[in-house]
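Format notes (please read before filing issues)

Several people have asked whether sequences and structure tokens are stored in separate files. They are not. Every record keeps both together, in the order shown below: the sequence lines, then the token lines. Line labels are part of the format and must not be stripped during preprocessing.
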Amino acid sequence: MRYEMREFAYDRDKAVAYAHRWAYFRNPNYYNFQDIGGDCTNYASQCIFAGSGIMNYTPTFGWYYISISDRAPAWTGVQYLYNFLTTNEGVGPYAREVSMNEIQIGDVVQLAIDRNEFHHSPVVVSITDDTPTLDNIHIAAHTNDCDCRPLSSYNFRKIRFIHIEGVRYLQAVED
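Then the structure lines:
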């Protein structure tokens, strides 16, 4: 028996439903990082996991959460999440940085608000027109909890859009 890498579509509706459900609350299955640096990327990871259903348990460079003391840096770190999603060739979700017109619901936006490095990871929950703009892209986020907040309401220095392209998994195949 051998294993082959397969893939399936990211379930954007499940990611958005999770984002709405937990925007103003904390899922008790995950630690609340609010008081130790912020909870935004933890929340974004939870939303992505709701839409993907697969974690990557690769030590250090994977993307997973078991407990506060057993998790990958990418689960809670803004830059680490970006690095994982945009370079992942293994199991779990994978993404690429895109222009604003390619963003979709369930994707992640990262912002540099009051410093030059990216430090906030909201999740896109709606786009109210065919052509995405800062005014019609609405996000949900933790740290400063919000749901359906227009992206234009942030005063940011830099912005990047991360489009989740799909999810990979290993499937056993008989020789």
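For reference, the curators noted about this record: The chain has one domain: 2-173. Residues 40-52 form the longest helix (13 residues).
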